[in-house]
Write a structure and sequence with these properties.
The protein is an alpha/beta fold and 242 residues long. Helix content is 31%, strand content 14%. The chain has seven helices and ten strands. A hairpin with a 5-residue loop joins β9 and β10.
Length: 242
C-alpha cells in the first residue's frame, strides 16, 4: 500500500464517491436580485429554453441561465448589448465577462475611470462599476448569436425595467443594431426617427440620449469595423454629454 506524509492511501476503488460539483447559484459574489432580471428558469422563449438545456448538458458547471444586469444602481450611463455570449456571460453569469467583447468593454470602462478593480474575465474578479450599468436586449444566449424577433419582444420588459430603475440615467450606449432598436423601444422612442449608425446621437423626448456604437465583438474588431480608438470615442462622447 502506498503512503504519504498524511498516512496510508487507500486504493482508489475504496474511496467514497465525491459529490458532484454544482453550477453557480449566484452570478457573482454579493449579487442581489433586481426586478429587471429574468428568473433563472424563465420560460418565455421555448427555443432559448431548449438551447439553455443543451448548454447545461454540455457544460453543467456554467451559468446557463438568463444573465442579470450588472453595475451601479445610481448609474447615469447604461450600456446595452445584444445577448450573452456562449462562452462569455452564459458561462460566467455576468454581462460581457469572459470573452473578447468583454475584454474590450471593461478595458475601455477602466480607461475612463468608470470601473474599479482589475478585470480578470471572471465574475468573481471583484470589478465594480462607477456610474455605469450593463445589460442586454436579450437575457439568454441565442443560437448563432441571433435572437428571433419574438424573443427580442418577449425580453424587452426586462430591459424596460432595468432602464426605468436607474433614476439618474442620462445616456444609453447601444452596441449594435439590435441593442439600438430595443433601447429605443424600451425608452419610448420612435425607430424611424432614430436610425442606427456608429457614432449617431439620438436625444429622446424622455431626456435620455442614445449613442450608437458597433458591437465590440471579436468579428468587428478583427475586421477593423470597430477599433479600440473608435470605441473609446463613443465613451468620450457620452462623458461630454453627461
Amino acid at each position: 500500500m502506498e503512503s504519504d506524509n498524511n498516512g496510508p492511501l487507500l486504493h482508489p476503488a475504496l474511496h467514497p464517491a465525491l459529490p458532484p460539483a454544482l453550477p453557480p447559484t449566484l452570478p457573482w459574489p454579493g449579487y442581489r436580485p433586481h426586478p429587471g432580471d429574468a428568473p433563472r428558469d424563465c420560460p418565455l422563449c421555448p427555443r432559448l429554453v431548449a438551447f439553455r438545456a443543451e448548454s447545461v448538458a454540455r457544460n453543467p458547471l456554467w451559468w446557463n441561465a438568463p444573465v442579470p444586469g450588472f453595475g451601479d444602481p445610481d448609474a447615469w450611463l447604461a450600456v446595452v448589448g445584444l445577448a450573452p455570449g456562449m462562452k462569455g456571460a452564459n458561462r460566467t453569469g455576468r454581462p460581457f465577462t469572459g470573452d473578447h467583447a468583454g475584454t474590450l468593454l471593461y478595458q475601455t470602462l477602466a480607461k475612463f475611470g468608470l470601473s474599479n478593480g482589475n478585470y480578470a474575465a471572471a465574475s468573481d474578479d471583484g470589478v465594480t462599476l462607477n456610474g455605469v450599468f450593463i445589460t442586454n436586449a436579450v437575457r439568454c444566449v441565442p443560437p448563432g448569436n441571433a435572437p428571433a424577433s419574438q424573443e427580442k419582444h418577449a425580453c424587452r420588459p426586462f430591459l424596460v425595467t432595468h432602464l426605468a430603475s436607474l433614476p439618474k440615467l442620462k445616456i444609453v450606449i447601444a452596441l449594435g443594431g439590435t441593442a439600438h432598436q430595443s433601447a429605443v423601444k424600451a425608452l419610448g422612442g420612435k425607430l424611424p426617427k432614430t436610425p442606427f449608425g456608429h457614432g449617431a446621437i439620438h436625444p429622446l423626448h424622455t431626456g435620455v440620449t442614445i449613442i450608437d456604437s458597433y458591437h465590440c465583438s471579436q468579428l468587428n474588431t478583427n475586421t477593423g469595423r470597430l477599433t479600440p480608438a473608435m470605441f473609446e470615442t463613443i465613451f468620450a462622447t457620452a462623458l461630454s454629454l453627461r
